[in-house]
């Protein structure tokens, strides 16, 4: 494992940015995630920033105080995307993290406000140039529930417990939190139709996922050993893989999802680094004793803390709820620990044929669902493909998403003795 605990994880650390010390903040000084922003209503170019409380540390403005960093780090921080920074690896990130903590910790001074930009006055962007995007199917609970809807006699494919299943998505349609999601149109065929028709999707869904951002590049033709997988991961974000279930049902045979999923994928704008996540590493969930062991290249040594104890949830507000001031309703919550395949296994399998992962590549975990009814990560599961509508607090019901619905994902890591950290919001509103 490349990440480890050090003084930057001390729960007693406080920042001179007062909002970073408030209970419940996603971004205390122990987090320090990276993003790319512009000041709203200005012509300022995109810059790299660090989230601290409700502020953004503009590393360009603070640069004079980072002169002791290695040249390659300072050069990477001056760019309008995170790719070069991500490529430098964990040793460089530990050096940078230490410098940022020294810059932001409370030393009794509050005269550095010129380095800060209020989050409310900034526009956030996709933080890296994403060359490739792959979405996995790593939750056995999600795979089983969905499989039962369509294949009651054999909900899981014979390969599921042996191979991390995935499909390639479209990186050009990845958008930052807050971007409106236009309802897609496509070919669909209902059971009673004599043939397909082209129309707006009637079964638009969200998927509660985590995104894995690749840092250090892989070599073409050279697999990544499971023990080295962490070395290639920069950090995590939240991810909503919007899905048109009616289009998906008609088009998926025989090659899998296509237009049902490539119209929009929303990610949260702040990338929480593996360094910040070090206190929350944990062993993956135990497999049932009757399940086959992973093949040797995917098999962890006993006691390996290869997973992250990250709690995730999804909330909805309809247009009518917002107008009436009704607060968001939580639809589900689950944990990254519930995944059948952990992050290291996803990275290792992706590169196992010699595929060369590159800085900025994005891997989605697939829908994160747990075993309980409260931990279903999409409406396809929650409503049994529309057969059990969900009732909203104002009496509206939903089989799938309606125009005006706003979906928000949130994530948090917490452990006794350490400061809790969050991921911000991954939010999108459906439009026609």
Question: What this model shows, in words?
Answer:
With 432 residues, the protein is an alpha+beta fold. It has eight helices and 26 strands. The protein has two domains: 7-125, SH3 type barrels (Roll); 133-431, Fumarylacetoacetase-like, C-terminal domain (Fumarylacetoacetate hydrolase, domain 2), CATH 3.90.850.10. 14% of the residues lie in helices and 26% in strands. Strands 6, 7, 8, 13, 14, 16, 17 and 22 form an eight-stranded mixed beta sheet that branches.
Mean pLDDT: 96
Low-pLDDT residue intervals, each spanning 5 or more residues: none
Structural class label: alpha+beta
* Total number of strands: 26
CATH class of the largest domain reads Alpha Beta
Could you tell me the CATH topology label of the largest domain.
Fumarylacetoacetate hydrolase, domain 2
Largest sheet: 8 strands, mixed
The CATH homologous superfamily of the largest domain is called Fumarylacetoacetase-like, C-terminal domain
Oligomer: single chain
Number of helical regions: 8
Domains, number: 2
Measured distance between first and last alpha carbons: 46 Å
Q: Outline, from the CA principal axes?
A: globular
Alpha-carbon Rg, integer: 22 Å
């Amino acid at each position: 494992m490349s990440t480890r605990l050090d003084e930057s994880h001390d729960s007693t650390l406080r920042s001179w940015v007062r909002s970073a010390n408030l209970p419940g903040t996603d971004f205390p000084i122990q987090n320090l995630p990276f993003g790319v922003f512009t000041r709203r209503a200005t012509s300022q170019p995109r810059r790299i920033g660090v989230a601290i409380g409700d502020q953004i540390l503009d590393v360009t403005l603070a640069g004079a105080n980072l002169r002791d960093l290695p040249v390659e780090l300072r050069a990477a921080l001056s760019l309008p995307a995170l790719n070069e920074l991500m490529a430098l690896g964990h040793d460089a990130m530990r050096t940078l993290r230490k410098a940022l903590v020294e810059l932001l910790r409370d030393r009794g001074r509050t005269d550095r406000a010129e380095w800060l930009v209020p989050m409310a006055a900034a526009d956030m962007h996709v933080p890296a140039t994403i060359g490739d995007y792959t979405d996995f199917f790593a939750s056995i609970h999600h795979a089983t529930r969905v499989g039962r809807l369509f294949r009651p006699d054999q909900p899981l494919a014979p390969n599921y417990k042996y191979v991390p299943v995935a499909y390639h998505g479209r990186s050009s349609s990845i958008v930052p939190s807050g971007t409106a999601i236009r309802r897609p149109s496509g070919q669909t065929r209902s059971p009673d139709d004599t043939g397909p028709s082209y129309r707006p999707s009637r079964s638009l869904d969200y998927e509660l996922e985590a995104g894995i951002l690749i840092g250090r590049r892989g070599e073409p033709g050279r697999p990544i050993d499971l023990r080295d997988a962490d070395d290639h991961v920069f950090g995590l974000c939240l991810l909503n893989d919007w899905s048109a279930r009616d289009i998906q049902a008609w088009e998926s045979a025989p090659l899998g999802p296509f237009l049902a999923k490539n119209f929009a994928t929303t990610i949260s704008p702040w990338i929480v680094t593996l360094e910040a996540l070090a206190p929350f590493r944990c062993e993956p969930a135990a497999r049932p004793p009757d399940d086959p062991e992973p093949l040797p290249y995917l098999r962890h040594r006993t006691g390996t803390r290869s997973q992250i104890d990250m709690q995730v949830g999804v909330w909805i507000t309809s247009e009518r709820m917002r107008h009436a001031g009704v607060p968001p309703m939580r639809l589900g919550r689950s944990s990254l620990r519930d995944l059948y395949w952990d992050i290291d296994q996803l990275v290792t399998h992706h590169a196992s044929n010699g595929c060369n992962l590159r800085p900025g590549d994005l891997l989605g975990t697939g829908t994160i669902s747990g075993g309980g009814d409260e931990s279903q990560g999409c409406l396809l599961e929650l409503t049994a493909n529309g057969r059990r509508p969900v009732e909203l607090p104002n009496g509206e019901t939903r089989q799938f998403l309606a125009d005006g619905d706003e979906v928000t994902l949130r994530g948090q890591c917490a452990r006794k003795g350490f400061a809790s950290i969050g991921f911000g919001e991954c939010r999108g509103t459906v439009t026609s």
